Amino acid sequence: MAAKDILISVQNATLSYPVKQGFLRWAKYTPLNNISFDLHRGETVGIIGRNGAGKSTLLRMIAGIIEPDQGRIVNHGASVSLLSLGVGFMPHLTGRENAMLSGMLLGLRKNEIARRMETIIEFSGIGAFIDQPLSTYSTGMRARLGFSTAIQIDPDVLLMDEVLSVGDEEFKNRSFIEIKRLIKSDKTVVLVSHAIPVIKELTNRLVWIENSTANVVGATDVVLREYMKARNTNNPPVG
Predict the structure, then answer these.
(1) Contact between residue 186 and residue 7 where contact means Cβ atoms under 8 Å apart
(2) b/e code 5-17 from CB counts within 10 Å (16+ = b)
(3) Which CATH superfamily is domain 3-42+54-184 in?
(4) Cα–Cα distance, 206 to 217 (Å, whole number)
(5) Exposure of 60 by Cβ count < 10 A (0-12 exposed, 13-18 middle, 19+ buried)?
(6) 99 by DSSP, 3-state: which?
(7) pLDDT tens digits for 76-119?
(8) Contact 35, 213 (CB under 8 A)
């Protein structure tokens, strides 16, 4: 792809922070070390790796929520949103109030969320519960409301962290269809998922995080082949 199509460049990004090891003893933990890759306009990139490999941390760095200790994240003028289910949800507020608050925290104006409220309610399937306190919701209902609110955002780059692993099977299928629609709309999407079939179907490229580094970056079929080989060894990565 041409350089002009690059929206975000991750350049030798390293992140470390102290972790406690015993009484008055601290050590440096480095979940991400010297990570480099580019995000191009219109592509869908998957991030895979074992639990705790730093995948979610990498998404937060790309979103600008945290900064690397070394290296840098270069944004070439793209708007970026991290699709995080239930951002700002508060149990004493109603579903409608929580959808409003969450949408504003994700970057939408209050009137924009108000205009989309009926769409949020319909997609979530919450129905009359939308005006009941969130404390009365099941975990699945909260997840459905969170997803239905989060997909209202319209950034150049959409970061999604395990958003297809929530809700019942019917809602997962609806969510999958909606994400496919977003991908076809020429959005740049970065997707973290443990579901290999999802990764295989939706992504163009993969970044495999292993031992704090981008072990492999490349076409989905090539990286998945290496990843699956590693899973079948005596010490396979989880996920």
Answers:
(1) no
(2) eebbbbeebbbee
(3) P-loop containing nucleotide triphosphate hydrolases (3.40.50.300)
(4) 6
(5) middle
(6) helix
(7) 999 888 876 666 789 999 999 999 998 888 788 999 999 999 99
(8) yes
Q: What share of the chain is helix, strand, coil (3-state, %, to 5)?
A: 40, 30, 30
* CA dist., res. 87 & res. 101, Å (int): 8
CA gap 202, 43 in Å, rounded: 10
3-state secondary structure of 31: strand
Amino acid at 113: I
Helix locations, 133-168, DSSP H = 139-150
- List C-alpha distances in Å: 98 to 2, 11, 135, 137: 42, 37, 11, 12
Share of the chain above pLDDT 70, in %: 92
10 Å Cβ neighbour count for 225? 11
Q: Answer yes or no: pTM beyond 0.70.
A: yes
Mean pLDDT for 210-229 is: 90
Read off the pLDDT of residues 116-126 as tens digits, 9 standing for 90 and up. 999 999 999 99
Helix (H) or strand (E) holding 101: helix 95-105
The tokens for 169 are 């099977």
**How many angstroms separate the CA atoms of 153 and 159, rounded?**
11
Q: Confirm if 26 and 187 have CB atoms less than 8 A apart.
A: no
What is the domain partition of the chain in residue ranges? 3-42+54-184
State the Cα–Cα distance between residues 124 and 130, nearest whole angstrom.
Answer: 9
Residues 6+ apart with CB under 8 A from 4: none
